[in-house]
Amino acid sequence: MGSARPVRGETRERADAAVRWLLRAQDATGDGGVSLGYFPCDTRERGGWRRSYPETTGYIIVSLLEYAKRRGREDVRERCFRMAKWETEVQMPSGAVQGGEVCTAERQTPAVFNTGMVLQGYTAALRYGAGEPILSAAKRAADFLVGDQGSDGQFRTHGAFVTPGRGKTYNCLCGWALVRFAADTGNEKYREAGVRAAEAAVLQQNGNGWFADNCLNRPEAPLLHTIGYTLQGILEVGILAKREDLVNAVRRGIHPILEQMGKYGFLHGRYYEDWEPASFSSCLTGNAQIAVVCYRLSETTGEVRYAHAANLIVDHLKALQVLDSRDEALNGALAGAFPIFGDYMTAGYPNWATKYFLDSLMLQEQFPSSE
Q1: What are the CA-CA distances from residue 349 to residues 160, 222, 345 (Å)?
Q2: What are the φ/ψ torsions at residue 155 (nearest 5 degrees)?
Q3: Average per-residue pLDDT in the chain?
Q4: pLDDT tens for residues 220-268?
Q5: Is the pTM of this model over 0.90?
């Protein structure tokens, strides 16, 4: 099982193990999508594996295609195309993607965030050689997002699986997908909508870097997971649009988090408006996301301090990755929380934790800590 000490090195091996687990999660469903995750205490269906999850299958495509390119893995590329094809089969007639695990058409409810994450997968698949019907599905998804956006840049359709209320600031991550798709199609309306989404998120930022209305269910104490979504969305739009003001907003948002980080890369799972921790446990998905943002900031600004912080986080996460369990379904995975019974995806291994961990590992290959 995991080590008590940070793990330096082993980056490539850890990434390979994470990919094996993600592919195992796809195999567990039998439909081409990726299982929401593995919950060993819940064996009511599929021996602990949950049904396919359209939202995260979408952005898992992005990660696995990058891995396939780096490793020359044609088999992984074909797996991703199968995921993308499955996404077209479950896409709603409006172009939206449903919230929650895959279900019958009669029970589907649209969710803008999920739509943006699947659009990310479509754009990646298109850049790696996919054609129709992926392009048509991507256009329908992008058009749904543009149509859902208000004049204030906020999206409206949050779906049935989050607490209703005002705007969800983390939806700005959809802006990145729109700007990417604009680059693929040459359609300026997608780029404009994506930039507006990032600008709308920055308007929710306080002077100390904290974002309002930025959580699934507790806006007064957002998850590091949704904070990570927001920072990544603003940063990637800022990079593509060459908007230094957006990049600087991310710097304002990341510095208080890094100031709270423990000596060995520990981060709390939630934060109040004054950046005091709102959870004793750690949200491991959020940790990996913050590492990704830091690596990208280091690439963009040339400041090595961000890469150094990211390495501390990733080396801590390596120590928590399961590698040698007698339950083969665990090997390669990262849990939702630390400790495992913490307050995010309790006692489970959601696929997006391992996805973002894989992203951070691939970036660490460019910024090795001691390899």
Answers
A1: 22, 20, 7
A2: -90, 155
A3: 94
A4: 999 999 999 999 999 999 999 999 999 999 999 999 999 999 988 999 9
A5: yes
CATH topology of domain 11-364: Glycosyltransferase (1.50.10)
β-bridge partners, 350: 37
Q: Are strands 37-38 and 349-350 parallel, antiparallel or unpaired?
A: antiparallel
pLDDT tens per residue across span 123-153: 999 999 998 899 999 999 999 999 999 999 9
b/e per residue, 92-122, with b = 16+ CB within 10 A?
A: bebbbbbbbbbeeeeebbbbbbbbbbbbbbb
Looking at residue 89, its amino acid is E
DSSP string, 121-158: HHHHHHHTT--TTHHHHHHHHHHHHHHHB-TTS-B---
Which CA distances in Å does 224 have to 166, 184, 254? Answer: 19, 31, 11
* Helical (H) or strand (E) element with 97: strand 97-98
Q: Quick one: three-class SS letters along 250-303?
A: HHHHHHHHHHHCCCCCCCCCEECCCCCECCCCEEHHHHHHHHHHHHHHHHHHCC
In this structure, which amino acid lies at residue 80? C
Quick check: 268 and 343 in contact, CB under 8 A? no
In whole angstroms, what is the distance from residue 334 CA to residue 357 CA?
A: 8
Report CA Rg, the chain: 19
